[in-house]
Amino acid sequence: MEGLLEKKEILKQFQLEGEVIELKPYGSGHINKTFLVIMEGGERYVLQEINRNIFHDTAGLMENVVNVTSYLKDKIAKEGGEPDRETLTVIPTVQGGYYYRDRAGNDWRVYRCIDRIITLDQAQTPEDFRESGRAFGNFQAQLADYPAQTLHETIPDFHNTPKRYLAFEKAVEEDICGRAASVAEEIAFIRARKDEISILAGLLDKGELPLRITHNDTKLNNVLLDEETHKAVCIVDLDTIMPGLCAYDFGDAIRFGANTAVEDEPDIGKVSLSLELYRAYAEGFLEGCGGRLTPKEIELLPLGAKTITIEQGIRFLTDYLQGDTYYHTEREGQNLDRCRTQLALVVDMEKKWEQMAV
Length: 358
Description:
The chain has 358 residues and is α+β, with helices and mostly antiparallel strands.
């Protein structure tokens, strides 16, 4: 593998015992570069290069991860669980820090590998999706008493929907690629829902919804499942843990996991909300939360799903109008297809709104 010697030198900066006998690419993530490390004694670790193009404050990011996982380990131990299996373990550097910056300015970290697990990109059964909901709900319950305001915003304004809307309007006005006229229908659709997508942010500002710790990437493949039982073991990819609203975490899971079509499906006729998967996730999520949510939060979970779906459509359309500079595209019009898929999902949510009550 290219750069093997350099990576072995990087690994020497962490508190690992023995020699590296194997190092290979690992996982399916698209943000950080990830490698599986196998030591001569059989110990397995995960080496990651943190993507500094997306995460500009590595120190703040790792402070979030270390503090939250330490808190979770204490809570899991008190509950009689397995702290080293049920949350991530960050390996310190030889200098006592939690990441290493190499001579090229790249930042690296190491986790202990959790064995006997699988990940799924899509639910094979409704029970898989229910288990994902239960895991992310439990994540909320475990961190309900953690002071959310002490966390760093690793991506500022990540789910600031009103701000995303303003960026969209600016992109429409500037129209630097001359594409606005061809997407007039999508622009009108979003504008018609301007007030609705600001409701949750407004309730947070007024103190009517509590600020919580949110994961912000609640895809199924960020839940490690036991390879035999398919029960949730551990939540991973904690880089975007930040203060936020639980409705956003719920909504992002639904947006991605309960859609009957892939995210960039050109045929929007294939797009719909699977009520079976929606209900499975909602049931699991509420069970995992263990009564820690307020009645208002529970009432607004469907609005979280709709808001985040529109927000993601806004982000895709904004990037399309600006020349496809943020999201990686493999074909012309891919961002527009992504946007249309999100908006078609919103249409189906509106048709099924009464059935989405939780």
